[in-house]
Fold:
Amino acid sequence: MRRHTFIATIGATALVALGLGAGGGASDSQATAGGDGLPQGSEPVTLDPADFTLQIDNPYWPMHPGSRWVYRETDTTGTKQRVVVTVTRRTKTVAAGITARVVRDVATENGKPVEITDDWYAQDRAGNVWYLGESVRNYKNGKLADREGSFEAGVGGAQAGVIMPAKPQPGLAYRQEYSKGKAEDRGEIVAFGADRVQVPAGFFAKDVVMTRDLAATEPKTEELKFYVRGIGEVLSVHTDGAGERSELVRYTRG
Structure:
């Protein structure tokens, strides 16, 4: 799962949230898709394929086939990338037994590919959007370099996670993905409905969810993301490293 970032005007709640603690510690309890609990840490989850659908209509991360998001990414070193995310009509049944929607993510720099990823998502009956793995192709000088970052729920101990809860509320924490040593990301809902976000795609003054993303494999990494009802992710800001930023330039609903 690529870590996108965005240039934007952030509301007062978001500025306050920059100083919040991490939160979202791991739990040893068993999580069940469609239940009240969300997966934490490295805990195993019990997933019943009958509980899942390819119709991903969570209002804060809707994935209708044909939907397309175009982002512009920059950082303080001068890197500029164009990222296009497209919900395809293709599906994949992962090893965990769930049939997922394939979402293609293409990042280019000066017209050359940097990373092409197929992400796999499905939604449970409660409305939580689950992340089931990804097939990653990393490029260097326009040529395939490696597939680092790839994982699949149900293979080698990898576990599915949640990318957007059905009922986002401040303080709600959850695992986003887990593959030991490769992908150990977690998220937390920081604010709901109070922030203002401005990107080239528009100005959004309500119905905004703000999350804080952390990665155990990259302990210094911190990313704030903003989701708008009916669109999905529109803003994200890295508060670490080169301060990667990106912005939603255009969104087309499928």
